[in-house]
Amino acid sequence: MAQARDHGGGVRSIEVPIPDNPLGHTLVYVVDTDRGPVLIDTGWDDPRSWTTLTDGLTACGTSVSEIHGIVITHHHPDHHGLSGAVREASGAWIAMHAADISVVRRTRSTRPETWLGYMAAKLTAAGAPEEHVAPLRTSGPRRLPGFSPALPDREIVPGELLDLPGRRLRAIWTPGHTPGHVCLHLEEAHPSQLPGHGRLFSGDHLLPEISPHIGLYEDPDDVTTADPLGDFLDSLERVARLGPAEVLPAHQYAFTDAPSRVRELLDHHEHRLTGLQSLLTTPLTPWQLAERMEWNRPWPDIPYSSRNIAVAEAEAHLRRLVKEGRAESVPGSDPVTYVAV
Length: 341
Ligand SMILES: [Zn+2]
Ligand SMILES: [Zn+2]
Description:
Layout: E1 4-6, E2 11-17, E3 25-31, E4 38-40, H1 47-59, E5 69-71, H2 77-80, H3 83-90, E6 93-97, H4 98-109, H5 112-125, H6 130-138, E7 154-156, E8 169-173, E9 182-186, E10 199-203, H7 228-242, E11 246-249, H8 258-279, H9 286-292, H10 304-323, E12 327-329, E13 338-340
Parallel strand pairs: 4-5, 5-6, 6-7, 10-11
Antiparallel strand pairs: 1-2, 2-3, 3-4, 8-9, 9-10, 12-13
Helix pairs in contact: 5-6, 7-8, 8-10, 9-10
Bound molecules: zinc ion (2 copies).
């Protein structure tokens, strides 16, 4: 049963399901413009998700063929998955930040075997045991999700208004969760006159109850320079300064008081960094640090793919500690270990 929720002022949302995922759904926003509806994100590429999206558009009094444009917060398949299908059905343009377009381009040109080899090398360098890495080298061809994402037609330029006739929607670059993540600030007054400055489509950057995954930017050309957690913390402060009256996130539900949610997340990460620094009294590899970090369940119970995500998160925190001068790598260690300063 398709549902569309009316947020007022020509903005509605559709809960597009993400199959077999605890997140449950992506909130796809439908923004009316003088040239027809524009979507913010599109949802996971799955037949049931597609049906929900198209039925939802019907419930909004429009149809997928009427879509004028697609604005993507970031390249992840629960946001960008259905973009190609919507473009095919409507002729809509697709817009994305250049840094995430690069990821899309790389994903499209990389064969899954090459990608698995890159993952294997990275996990080995992070200190993963051979029994964890071996399956990546030996398993045959398989279908990886999101391996041929749609190539966007337009770049989202940070700080600029998007070309949405009759609306004021400004791109706010919020790297961290991905290198090209953007939030979209609808600068018009809140339809119910809530205090604050307009409304913010926050993608995965700012969610009411979840702290988004901050790992590494999956870029084979990036050695150790990127600091995604540092980027994320800066991006949080950027959206707090906007002071939106309401936040319209891509998962869960709409909420108010962005600055206090930002404060919670900043405190959470500072608490985590301090805890990790205290674990580094003896030198640890990123893998060993991940084993000792607190997760939502004991390490032995964490499934294979989630361990890869966990070790990337451990590495992102290590890079931040190094940048802040609170930890350093041990010269000559292989795989590299880190110790508190
Ligand atoms: Zn995401
Ligand atoms: Zn997401």
